[in-house]
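job 3f2a | input accepted
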Amino acid sequence: MSLDSCRAAIAHENDKEIAERIHAACNSICGCEAFSLADGCPGTVRDSETLHLVISDPQSLLPDLTLNPASLVQIDYAGLSVLRGPAADGEFEITITELKARSASAGKERFFHGICSFAAATIRYNGSHRFLCVYDTALPGKPHHADVFGPDLRAIAGGAMSNSERERRKRQRIKQLIDRIGASFQPAQRFRGGIFAARSRPAA
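job 3f2a | predicted structure (204 res):
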């Protein structure tokens, strides 16, 4: 494992293969957390840090307003994007604008619904075992960007695993993630004094 191999993995051009590459770059579960994976990062992510997950409407939500599992599957592919606690308002503005533009290009509307804020340790550990990995991955205009990945389930299990069992455990892990972070939701009108409330869905 090295800084170069971890950085090469996170920069891999095929989004569907990044998780697999970053697992292969490590000789231990979440080993690449030891390194800053992009220039301009403020340093590796500490357990005590607050992470912010942008929740959009409707893509991140089910009809009952609970988190949509489909919005979290990136933990097993390209990584789930979050912003670290000290992120400037401008970093959230860039993120919201990017999400809206992505949906607009597909002919769909997207609104800012709010933020789930939680300590990195909340999603890093399951008792004494690792649950998810959190890597510092600064982006242009977003130095406090980070990515969340699920560790290789076969490595956690310590042996071979059928594809069907692996998929079952992936779904179970996403459900556990929803349970852990869903209660931390702050609506757009409350997050940072409502500075982004104008980007939320207009009241009916």
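job 3f2a | The two ends are 53 Å apart (CA to CA).
job 3f2a | closed
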